[in-house]
Amino acid sequence: MTNDDRIKLDAPQQGTTRLIAAAQAGDSEALGELLNSYRNYLVFMARTGLHHHLQGKADPSDIAQEVCLAAHGNIADFQGQTAEEFAGWLRGILSNLLSMHVRKFLGTQKRDPRLEQQLNASLANASGFLQSRIAAEITSPSQHFARKEAFLQLAEALESLPEDYRRVIVLRHVDGLPFADVAKAMGRSVDSVEKLWVRGLAKLKTTMGEV
Question: Which keywords fit this entry according to its UniProt record (predicted)?
């Protein structure tokens, strides 16, 4: 890796860190820019949590907006410094909101530790996928996240994919399902989901170079 490549890799991290520091210091414009840069990440994470519990019953974009509003009003509670720490803090807010929406849908006010564990596991799996080596594997060295954090870029690319492509990738890589179970979940043959998966990853690789 050349010095120029290293600068490209470090630049988005430094930019996010500066925005975090400014937001913590009370700069509302910086906070707005910071939250906007995480919006697709939150939509993807919300979609992943919802598809196990509230698929079709809530809009991931609306949930993401709720997270942003909550974060805006509680930024003083965030004590971290890095992009990953901020993502983890937002994920905690998202988990609480998803639990609330599921309880509302089920008509109960009582907290369900088992449900919360399932939601947290779903979000942890999604986060792990965004932080995994797949992001590096589907980009060329010259494309390596010159403009933003790797996991944010991957989330943005995933959200821009056609639904079938995104779903097969999530079922395969986030949920860790074998192709037979992916086929059952999608109502397709094993052969068709394998081909869909290959096309989806190819499209994701192309999209990663555009976002």
Answer: Sigma factor, Transcription, Transcription regulation
